[in-house]
Amino acid sequence: MSIMRNINVLWIVIIVTYMIQTRFFEKIFGREQIVDSHTQEVDNSAYTKQGFTVHLAILYLLSWYLLIPFNKWIWSHNESHDFITRQQRELKDREDELEDLSEPIELPQTTTSISSSSTSLSSSISYFAKILTMSFFLAITVVTYTLGLGLSPSFDITLIQNCAFFEIVTLLYGVCSVSRNKNVFRNFLIMMVAVISILIVSYTNATCNLLAGKMSVNKETKEVNDPWLFDRLKAGLITGLGSLAIGPFAVWCNQWFEDKSIKRADKIKINTKNLFYLPTVSILLLLPFLNLGNFSLIVEEYFSQPKFWLNLFVATVFGTLPNIVAIVKLNAYYPNEFVTTCNLGVIIITGLFEWICESGHTVIVRWEVISYIFLSICTITLYFSLRGNLHA
Fold it and tell me: What is the pLDDT of the chain when averaged over all its residues?
C-alpha cells in the first residue's frame, strides 16, 4: 500500500497540520503583545488588529489555489502505476467482449444541437448553484475560525471548533445516509461519552489556568482578572455556531461531487475543478466585509513585517496544504464518517502539546486527566470501528 493511502499516515497528518495551521495563525495576531504581563490589562489601541480577521480568511482561501497543482501531483504520483494497470485490464476486457459479439453494434442516435445546448446550460447553472451554496457555508466556517483566533487563545478555538465539527458532521452523515448504518447505537453512546469528556475538559480549563497563574482573582472584588473573559465568550459563540456550517458542506461534497462509478482520473479532474471554484466564490462573498478604512494600518502592522510572512508561509505550506490534501485522500479511500475521528484526535494531541510545551505554566487537575483518558478511549474505539476497508 502506498504511504499516501495509509490510513494511519493520513490520520496523523491531518491532526499535526491542523495544529501547525492554528498555532501560526495565532502568532500572526500577536496576542501576547497587546496584554500587559504585570497588570493583565488589554491595550485597547491594539483592538484594531481584529479587523484583519477577514483579510486572513481571504489569504487562507487564496492558499487553496496552490492545492490544484499540488493535489494533482500527489494523485498522479501515487496512482500512475495503478491507473496504467487498470487501463490495460479494461482494454483486455473490451477485446474479449468484441470477440464474442456476433451481431453488429448499434450506435446511439445523436441528439439535436438545441437539446444538447439546453442540457449543457441547465447542468452548468445547476453546478454553479451548488458551488455558490457550498462556498457560502465554507466562507462562514473560515471567517468565524479566523475571527475566533483573533479573540481567544488557540486552545479554546481548537476545542470548540473540533467539537462542533465532530457533532454536526456525525449527525448529518447519519441523517443524510452518507455514513454506513452499522453499530449505530454503540457508536452513538461512544460519541456521547466523547462529547461529555470534551465538555469537562473545557470546563476545567479555567480552573487549570487559575492554578497555573494565567488568571488571578481580584482580592477586593473577588472577581477573576481574565483579560480575555468576554473575548473567550464571543469567540466560543461565534466559532461554535460558524463551525456548524461545515456539516452541510461535507454532506454536499459527498452527495454532489462524488461518484463511486467514475474512473479515478475523472474524479481527480472534478476535485481540481472544485478546488478552483470553491475558494474563488468564497472570496467574492467575503469581499464586501473587508474594512478598507484601516488598510494602511494593516499594511503597517502585518504586510510590512517579515514575521507575518514567515508565519503565513509556515501555516500555509506545513499546515493548510497538507491538511486539505490528507482530508481529501482520506475521504476518497476510506468511509466518509471516519474523518470525524480526526477532530477528537486534534483535541487530545493539542492538550498534550500544551502540557509539554508549557509545562512550567500548566497545571492539570484530576477531572481533566479523567476526561482525557475517556476521550482517548472513545477515539481509539471509533478509530477501529469506523475505519472500514480501503476502497478499490
Answer: 78
pTM of the model: 0.81
- Write out the three cell numbers for 326: 490528507
Place of cell 474594512: 291
- Identify the CA nearest to 336 among candidates 186, 122, 174: 174
What the block records as the C-alpha cell of 304 is 510590512
d(CA 294, CA 92): 65
- Angle among Cα 73, 87, 255 to the nearest 5 degrees reads 65
pLDDT value for 45: 44
Distance CA 141, CA 147 (A): 10
**Residue 128: what residue type?**
F
**Residue pair 151/42 in contact by the 8 Å Cβ criterion:** no
For residue range 139-189, list pLDDT tens digits in order.
999 999 999 998 888 888 999 999 999 999 998 988 887 877 677 788 889
The DSSP result for 140-176, as a single string, is HHHHHHHHHHTTS-HHHHHHHHHHHHHHHHHHHHHHT
Cβ-based neighbours of 352, under 8 Å, separated by 6 or more: none
Look at residues 137, 197, 214 and name the one whose alpha carbon lies nearest to residue 168. Answer: 137
Please, are residues 363 and 211 in contact by the beta-carbon 8 Å criterion? yes
DSSP secondary structure of 256-322: HS--TTS-HHHHHHHHHHHHHHHHHHHHHHHGGG--GGGHHHHIIIIIT-HHHHHHHHHHIIIIIHH
Nearest to 157 by CA among 354, 356, 362, 366: 354
At 102-150, the pLDDT tens digits run: 545 454 555 455 666 677 788 888 888 999 999 999 999 999 999 999 8
Q: How far apart are CA 197 and CA 193, in angstroms?
A: 6
Instruction: For residues 53 and 231, give the distance between their C-alpha atoms in angstroms, rounded to a whole number.
Output: 14
In contact, 258 and 178? CB cutoff 8 Å = no
Residue appearing with cell numbers 504520483:
77
Burial class of residue 200 in the structure, from the number of CB atoms within 10 Å of its CB (0-12 exposed, 13-18 middle, 19+ buried): middle
Q: Are 20 and 158 in contact (CB under 8 A)?
A: no
Give the start-to-end residue ranges of the domains of the chain: 3-79+126-386
Cα–Cα distance measured from residue 189 to residue 69, given in angstroms and rounded to the nearest whole number: 42
